[in-house]
Amino acid sequence: NASTAPSSIRFLISNVAAGSVIGKGGATISDYQAQSGARIHLSRNHEYFPGTTDRIISISGIGSEVLTALHLILGKILNEIEEDHEGQDLKTNQVKLIVPSNVCGAIIGKGGATIKMFVEDSGANIKLSSQDQSIPGVSDRIVTITGTLDQQLRAVALILTKLIEDPNYSQYVNTPISYPGKTLIGIMSPVVALHSPLQLELPVVQAGPLTTSITIAVPDERIGAIVGRGGKIIIEIQQACGVKIKISDRGDFITGTKNRKVTIAGTAEGVRTAQHLLTEKVRQSMLSDYER
User: Fold this and answer.
1) 138: closest CA among 271, 11, 268?
2) Where does the K Homology domain lie (predicted)?
3) What SS3 state is found at 56?
4) What confidence score (pLDDT) does residue 115 get?
5) What DSSP character marks residue 210?
6) How far, in Å, CA of 105 to CA of 138, rounded?
């Protein structure tokens, strides 16, 4: 029975909405957990779903608890949006579920029959992100549900019922929320944000047989921090990760900024690790300036 089976859903939530769901000193989220009986977890501040600036919220419990918690959270977010946009028609509100690719087939159904049935039953619009848009190393797809609060809840209930039937889904219920090393943006700490922010351009992914390349933006005055004396740091990172790192020439900035382009090319795993190490070097250099 779907309402009593252990289940879990994850969806994307903006930083602002996350703040209102947590509430002062965590009061709102504690209240929602008490009212629903579900466990509610959020990814930490600046831990975003790859390729977005949204945090991840996970609700787990039995089906009925999960849907109650979802109702409370979406209701709260919708109320706040309505207060910000007084009098506007907000029938186009969206919820974006994160669903493992290997269980998406269950939602789509043969020739799209299942998803079509869900759309007719709920009245919501349901769309899956295409597999071509997937980010290297991330095996999840985004299911965007658009409609009124009731339509969204009905659509999620239908999807959840279907997912619970899939044996692969039970493994997903207990996996941790983070995407280790896959956060493409937001590796900045709030302290650094006060200072010269490290802006990361989202991936210019040129996928060859096994290669990916991304370009990140590094403030000109921080280039020394990633190159090191005599190129020592950059050589070490290239060797350790098996990647090639190319820095744009002096004065060759990303349009409208004083940021140089740093391109990392290699396997998806190598690129991610190198990117993490580079951003960490920049962050340390900023923090030491800030503490001086």
Assistant:
1) 268
2) 5-78, 91-164, 210-283
3) strand
4) 93
5) S
6) 17
Give 253's DSSP letter. B
Query: What count of other Cβ atoms lies within 10 Å of the Cβ of residue 73?
Result: 24
Give the DSSP per-residue string, 113-137: HHHHHHHHHH--EEEEPPGGGPPTT
Q: Is 14 within 8 Å of 46 (Cβ atoms)? A: no
H/E run at residue 28: helix 27-36
The pTM assigned to this predicted structure is: 0.58
CA distance 96 to 2: 21
Lowest-pLDDT choice from 14-28, 44-58, 161-175: 161-175
50 HSE (CA, 13 A, CB side): 19
In this structure, of 31-35, 231-235, 258-262, the range with the lowest mean pLDDT score is 258-262
Lookup: tokens for 234: 């950059």
Long-range contacts of 18-27 (CB under 8 A, 24+ apart): 18/42, 18/45, 18/55, 18/57, 20/76, 20/77, 20/80, 21/57, 21/73, 21/76, 21/77
Structure confidence at residue 227 as a pLDDT band (50, 70, 90):
very high
Beta strand pairing call for 259-266 and 39-42: unpaired
